[in-house]
Write a structure and sequence with these properties.
Elements lengths: L6 E5 L5 H10 L2 E4 L15 E6 L2 E7 L7 E3 L2 E4 L5 H19 L3 E5 L5 H7 L3 E11 L13 E5 L5 H11 L8 H7 L3 E9 L2 E11 L2 E9 L8 H15 L5 E6 L3 H9 L3 E13 L1
Parallel strand pairs: 5-7, 12-13
Antiparallel strand pairs: 1-3, 2-6, 3-4, 4-6, 7-14, 8-13, 8-14, 9-10, 10-11, 11-12
Amino acid sequence: MMVDVDLQMRSAVQTDRRLLANLMQLGPYSHRHLDWRYPLDWIGSPPFLVLEWQDQIISVLACPPDPPLVAWIRLFVASGKISLDDSWQKLWNAARLYLVGKGHFMAAAIVLQEWYHSLLLASGFSCRQSIVILEREERLPVQVTLPAGFLIRPMLQHDLPAVAELDAAAFDLLWQNSLPALELAYPQAVLATVAEADGQVLGYQLSTRNPVGAHLARLAVRPEQQGRGLGRALVADLIHQADRHGMYRLTVNTQSDNAASLTLYNNLGFRETGKRYAVYQLQI
């Protein structure tokens, strides 16, 4: 029987990548955060911990903070060599101690698999809200109407610092995209635009390609400009562009308690798919 003395915990290193990739593919329990960055690219950014038994990696947990005060659970995989609860508790307790030593953080996880709920609840996490999935398949025309003095143009690389500043102003800390995250997201976008007035970026959208069309990954408008129709104009323009590129089916995620966002998407023909994913959080 395996006993605790046989278990060793350490930080992941680059030479672990192949073994961790295999574990991600074959492990019976695998949680992977919805992220712009491949999970193993976080190796070297603590806490990124592995649990070993007889020199074999049997579990892994990564939750490096980004943005600086938010630690999303980016990867948790368990091989089943020990109980799922033991794998989680040993790794999470060590990761939590690391975060406590660094200051105050919000830990968070989006639950995509049913087995993960009980682990988070047992560790003191609580359900904050849900991610709602919406989809637009109809090809009804929509009108792009902008306030006087505004224009919509393609996002450029040099816009990213201004976009990151806008993003931080528009979202709660938990949902902000840092500049490094946006620098990873931008090359992955199939359509990215900004709403501009007097040379200032006041809104943006960033969308990626998926097998069925396009996914609106991010929409933001500066708080002082909200309510003027900029968000609607950005999404309407996206619909036109996507249609021209043959991407007739659009998807988007938003928070279940974001009434303004849900109203906007519903008015533009998006409908809930019925899929929802719980968001758990824990103040550290």
